[in-house]
Specification:
Blueprint lengths: L1 H11 L12 H11 L2 H8 L3 H6 L5 E5 L11 H7 L4 H9 L27 E3 L5 E3 L3 H5 L7 E6 L11 E8 L3 E9 L1 E3 L4 E2 L2 E2 L22 H4 L2 H22 L1 H6 L5 E6 L4 E5 L1 H9 L16 E12 L5 E12 L13 H4 L6 H8 L5 E5 L3
Parallel strand pairs: 1-4, 4-10, 5-11
Antiparallel strand pairs: 2-3, 5-6, 6-13, 7-13, 8-9, 10-11, 12-13, 12-14
Helix pairs in contact: 6-9
């Protein structure tokens, strides 16, 4: 009789079944790779011992940096004010602290017993319950063993530019710079039919009333005399410095993770993108980079550049770029820059729309060649 009661009790109150136990490890890894975000993966890691053992095998990782801590531990408000300064000066103040500790990585992959708030020198704690520990991306990624695709996103671009100015760059690196494309404009008009509160004809944009000569396909003489060329040289140098600093600071991650096949370092503003493919990553491991003696960045080699300019460029979506400029850059030791055919795809496809269309329109215009020495 007692045994019957036990059986009935088992039927009424069956043992709980963990449905996750029925999911194979390979499928869980597919799910974790779709998640990608390192913070979310850190939370998954504390769900169970099984998850804790599987998460380090993820091969696709996204690291979103919340805040960059400067060398002088200045506040985020002071960093924001630096954005209005000269591009190069604000760049150095912000970027020299890039691989200093980052905030908001307390919930990361560590055993449960070690997940208590830390009061070490890299912590910023007001109370024991409200503690933010700083970690660099190198520290954050150290427990991942199989990373193939890595994307790191900074909270903003390094270059402080004036309001309304467009500045975008994309650079590919191996052991040194492979190529770089820069798209810039002194201003962007999103609704060209209304300027300063009045209706205008789009054909009027770029006329003498706005201080610009009528666009005939060539750079106007005023471009050289009113500081237009000088400004674009500053934009170009600033972008190259930003790219080479990102490249230099990625070295610990590249050295630590031999399985890496693709690495992208970008920012939430969409200002700059540094990318490295499998061949370029391997090249860097075999051939050490040349560091600049002046600062913590990769030495930029002697360069050949091609420049295209339009006093105004109207895109199919109605956006108008005033003073639109495209610069294609390659090391001087490489072959001559080509912008057509398969070799020119890196120029035409460097940017997402609508700026990809702007690049394709600009390369059809008159080309100007420049050279720049190593720095």
């Amino acid at each position: 009789m007692g045994s019957i009661r036990l059986d009935l009790g088992g039927k009424i109150h069956p043992e709980p079944i963990d449905l996750l136990d029925g999911i194979p490890d390979s499928l869980l890894l597919v799910i974790f790779n779709k998640i990608g975000d390192v913070k979310s993966l850190g939370r998954c890691c504390v769900v169970s011992k099984r998850f804790h053992s599987l998460v380090p095998q993820v091969d696709t990782i996204i690291v979103r940096v919340d805040c960059v801590i400067s060398d002088d531990d200045s506040s985020s408000s002071s960093l924001a004010s630096d954005k209005s300064r000269h591009p190069i000066s604000s760049f150095f103040r912000l970027f020299l602290g890039l691989f200093k500790p980052f905030q908001s990585f307390t919930q990361f992959i560590t055993p449960a017993a070690r997940r208590l708030p830390s009061f070490a020198e890299d912590s910023d704690c007001e109370t024991e319950q409200n503690c933010v520990t700083h970690h660099s991306p190198t520290q954050v990624l150290k427990n991942f063993n199989e990373i193939k695709l890595l994307r790191i996103t900074l909270p903003s671009g390094e270059l402080g530019i004036d309001a309304g100015v467009l500045l975008k760059w994309r650079a590919d690196f191996g052991s040194t710079l492979d190529n770089c494309v820069i798209l810039a404009a002194s201003s962007v008009i999103h609704n060209p039919n209304r300027v300063c509160g009045r209706n205008v004809d789009t054909n009027d944009i770029g006329n003498n009333s706005n201080g610009l000569a009528i666009d005939n396909g060539s750079i106007p003489e005023s471009f050289y005399t009113n500081g237009g060329l000088k400004l674009r040289v500053v934009w170009t140098i600033s972008s190259l410095i930003a790219a080479s600093a990102r490249h230099y600071l990625l070295q610990p991650i590249i050295a630590e993770h031999q399985t890496l096949e693709s690495l992208i370092l970008t920012d939430s503003d969409g200002q700059g993108v540094l990318s490295m493919n499998k061949v370029q990553l391997e090249e860097l491991r075999l051939k050490p980079l040349s560091a600049s003696s002046a600062s913590k960045r990769t030495l930029v080699p002697a360069l050949n550049m091609r420049l295209w300019y339009a006093s105004h460029l109207e895109l199919p979506n109605g956006m108008v770029l005033i003073g639109a400029t495209l610069v294609a850059i390659k090391p001087r030791e490489q072959s001559k820059i080509e912008v057509v055919g398969s070799e020119g795809n890196w120029v035409a496809s460097a940017f997402e729309e609508p700026f990809g269309t702007a690049a394709r329109m600009l390369v059809k215009r008159r080309t100007y060649c420049l050279e720049m020495n190593s720095f």
